[in-house]
Design a protein that fits this description.
Blueprint (H helix, E strand, L loop, with lengths): L4 E17 L2 E15 L2 E8 L8 H9 L12 H9 L6 H19 L3 H4 L7 E2 L1 E4 L4 H10 L5 E5 L5 H11 L4 E4 L7 H13 L2 E5 L7 H10 L4 E3 L9 H4 L5 E5 H4 L2 H13 L3 E5 L5 H8 L7 E2 L12 E2 L7 E2 L10 E2 L3
Parallel strand pairs: 5-6, 6-7, 7-8, 8-9, 9-10, 10-11, 11-12
Antiparallel strand pairs: 1-2, 2-3, 4-14, 13-15
Helix pairs in contact: 1-3, 2-3, 5-6
Bound molecules: magnesium ion.
Length: 341
């Protein structure tokens, strides 16, 4: 027996604005917060659970309740602990991520190292995009004001009004845009026409244009598009990359899909070998998971880590992109501090 204690509890993230994507709008995101305590150290982690991930607070807590750390010999042996946890059950990617993030925070605190130094990743301040969900013209204009400090806009598209949304944004700003379709397009000829038009309008990339299952039309579009076509919903883990590189020019890597920091890091390395561009993205999350991802940000081509700016009830202080840039801090572990119970 040792004195390692894993605990977890459900938490509901309250969004500042209803968040619209191609097939739904929501005002909250369920989450589960995780703590691993060892001696005087506490590591924090988080699972954020947007509905499309198909994990729930109940499924995450059930998965975490199966993790038995009581006979663990070395809490700092991250790789072997994560491998054991991964083998407990298939799927459960966000649940696994919450544990991975808490373990990295704990081990960093024990070793007195920020996570980026544990991986020998260079520290570099990066611009991050600000995400604007699908909304009325009036609300789009309000959200564009909120995005004032940001150099890049991430616009959610995939509706019948895509041109109108882009025109509304362009009436206010000529900032470069990442267009996230969230699987919302289905007609490939129309998709190509719109992509060509978007490219003319300083849209830098298209994310997940078609269904995640539709590799044929995606490959067709990618081969004709002047701008990169990025996989999001189609790629979760390392094992998905070899297939993705046949149809996409890049991949959006997120901790909640990748099972956490450890595999996200491996995915970035593998994506480079496959000549895939890399976006580092997030869900709506507290500063806990955003700070975790920030340690990898210097390795990505594009950074989209604004999820903590979209919620009202953050529990942590740490990395914050409110001024439009993101950089990991030098405190041990994730570099966060809990500010509320
Ligand atoms: Mg996306």
């Amino acid at each position: 027996m040792n004195n390692i204690k894993l605990s977890h509890y459900p938490y509901t993230l309250e969004l500042k604005h209803p968040f619209g994507i191609s097939d739904n709008t929501r005002t909250t995101t369920p989450a589960v917060l995780v703590e691993i305590k060892y001696e005087e150290f506490t590591g924090y982690g988080e699972a954020s659970l947007p509905p499309y991930l198909l994990e729930t607070q109940e499924s995450v807590q059930f998965f975490l309740s199966q993790i038995d750390l009581s006979s663990l010999y070395d809490i700092t042996d991250i790789d072997s602990i994560l491998s054991t946890v991964d083998n407990l059950a298939q799927g459960n990617n966000a649940a696994k991520a919450s544990f991975d993030i808490a373990l990295h925070d704990l081990v960093g605190k024990i070793k007195k190292l920020p996570v980026y130094k544990m991986y020998n990743i260079p520290k570099r301040e990066r611009f991050t995009s600000y995400t604007i969900g699908i909304d009325s013209t009036e609300m789009l204009l309000i959200k564009l004001k909120e995005a004032e400090n940001f150099k890049f806009i991430k616009a959610k598209l995939g509706t019948l009004d895509d041109k109108k949304i882009i025109n509304t944004i362009r009436s206010e700003t000529d900032k470069p845009i990442f267009a996230d379709i969230n699987q919302g397009w289905s007609d490939r000829e129309a998709a190509l026409d719109l992509t060509l038009e978007l490219a003319e309008n300083n849209v830098l990339l298209i994310e997940q244009p078609f269904s995640k299952l539709n590799y044929t039309d995606t490959a067709w579009l990618t081969s004709r598009s002047p701008i990169p076509v990025i996989a999001d919903e189609a790629v979760k883990r390392l094992s998905d990359l070899d297939e993705a590189c046949k149809a996409y020019s890049g991949v959006n890597i997120k901790l909640m899909k990748s099972t956490g920091i450890s595999e996200a890091y491996k995915m970035i390395i593998r994506a480079r070998e496959l000549n895939l561009k890399v976006m580092l993205g997030c869900m709506t999350e507290t500063t806990c998971a955003i700070s975790a991802a920030a340690h990898l940000c210097s390795l990505a081509d594009w950074v989209d880590l604004d999820g903590n700016l979209l919620i009202n009830n953050d529990l942590f202080d740490g990395v914050n992109a409110a001024k439009g840039t993101i950089v990991p801090n030098d405190l041990p572990g994730l570099g966060i501090r809990k500010i509320s119970q």
